[in-house]
Specification:
The protein is an alpha+beta fold and about 280 residues long. The protein has 2 domains: about 100 residues; about 160 residues, no CATH class. It is built from 6 helices and 11 strands. The strands form 3 sheets. Strands 6-5-8-9-11 form a 5-stranded antiparallel β-sheet. The radius of gyration is 30 Å and the shape is elongated.
C-alpha cells in the first residue's frame, strides 16, 4: 500500500512564495494595461493596453473564478465550453467599454493622412460685394460662402472643393443622417473624377490661406421664409474638399452645417455674426 506523506509546513510556505511572483506579475501587467488605456499617448500604446487587459480578463476567468461547482460534473469539455462562453461575453462587454476611447485615439492620430491639411470653418452668409451680409425676404436668394483653411505647416496642392445646399421644410429627427447619406453619393462621383484627373482644381493653397466655395439657394417661398424664424425651415450646407501634399498623397474631408432659426429683424438685414451654424450630428 502506497501512502503519501504530508508536506512539511516550511515546504508549503515555499510553494506559496513561488506563487506570489506570478500573482504580483499579473497585477503589474494589469496595471500597465489600465495605464496604457487611460493615459496612452498614441493609438498603438492605447491598443496595447486594450490587448493586455483582454488577455488578463481571460486569464482571470479561467484561473481565478470559483469553478469548483462545475468540476463536480467531471466533464472537462463542458467546463471548457462554459469558460469560453463566459470569456467571450466578458470580452464583448470590455470591447463596448473601450470602443469610444480607442476610436477617439485612432481619429486623433491617423485621420490626417497627409502632411498638409485643410480644415472647414463656419459658413458665411452673403457673397461677392455683400459678403458677410444678407438681405433675407420672401423670394430672395441667399448666397453662402464655405471656407476651407490650410491649418498645416505645408502647402496643399491640387485643391478641389465642392459644396451644395439643401433647403428643407419640417426636418425630421433623421434629417441629418439622410442629408449626409445623399451628399456622400455626390462625393463618390467627385472623388472618382479627382483620382482620374477629370476635375479642374482650384490650384495650390498656402499655409494659413483659404479656398472658398459659394452656394446660392433658390428663391425662398413664403413658407420657407417664415420657417427660417420658427425652425420649420432648415438650410443645410455641405462641402467636400480634396487635396494632395508635396509627396502626392491624397486626403479629403467633408463638412456639414445647418442654419439655426434666425432672429426677427425689421430691416431684414443679417450680418454673418448674427446667425448661428451648427455642425451636423447623425443622431439629430
Amino acid at each position: 500500500m502506497v501512502t503519501s506523506k504530508a508536506k512539511p509546513k516550511s515546504q508549503k510556505q515555499s510553494i506559496k512564495k513561488k506563487h506570489r511572483i506570478p500573482f504580483a506579475l499579473e497585477y503589474l501587467i494589469a496595471a500597465y494595461g489600465i495605464a496604457a488605456l487611460v493615459w496612452g499617448m498614441n493609438f498603438y500604446t492605447t491598443l496595447s493596453g486594450v490587448l493586455v487587459l483582454a488577455v488578463m480578463i481571460v486569464l482571470f476567468i479561467h484561473h481565478h473564478l470559483p469553478w469548483g461547482y462545475l468540476n463536480k460534473i467531471n466533464k472537462p469539455k463542458t467546463i471548457a465550453k462554459v469558460k469560453i462562453v463566459v470569456s467571450l461575453a466578458a470580452l464583448c462587454a470590455f470591447g463596448l467599454i473601450v470602443k469610444a476611447p480607442l476610436k477617439e485615439q485612432w481619429v486623433k492620430d491617423y485621420h490626417q493622412k497627409t502632411t498638409s491639411f485643410l480644415q472647414s470653418e463656419t459658413p458665411i452668409i452673403g457673397t461677392g460685394s455683400s459678403a458677410g451680409h444678407a438681405f433675407i425676404t420672401p423670394g430672395c436668394i441667399i448666397g453662402i460662402n464655405v471656407p476651407w483653411k490650410n491649418t498645416s505647416s505645408e502647402r496643399a496642392f491640387d485643391v478641389f472643393e465642392y459644396s451644395e445646399g439643401i433647403v428643407l421644410i419640417n426636418p425630421s429627427s433623421l434629417t441629418n443622417t439622410t442629408v449626409i447619406q445623399q451628399f456622400s453619393s455626390s462625393v463618390k462621383t467627385y472623388k472618382a473624377d479627382y483620382l482620374s484627373g477629370k476635375l479642374k482644381t482650384t490650384g495650390d493653397v498656402g499655409i494659413g490661406h483659404y479656398v472658398w466655395e459659394s452656394y446660392f439657394t433658390k428663391p425662398l417661398s413664403i413658407i420657407e421664409y417664415n420657417g427660417l424664424f420658427n425652425g420649420l425651415t432648415r438650410i443645410y450646407i455641405l462641402s467636400y474638399c480634396v487635396w494632395k501634399d508635396s509627396a502626392g498623397t491624397i486626403d479629403s474631408s467633408v463638412s456639414c452645417y445647418w442654419l439655426s432659426p434666425l432672429p426677427k429683424r425689421d430691416n431684414n438685414m443679417y450680418a454673418w455674426d448674427e446667425v448661428a451654424w451648427h455642425m451636423c450630428q447623425t443622431n439629430k
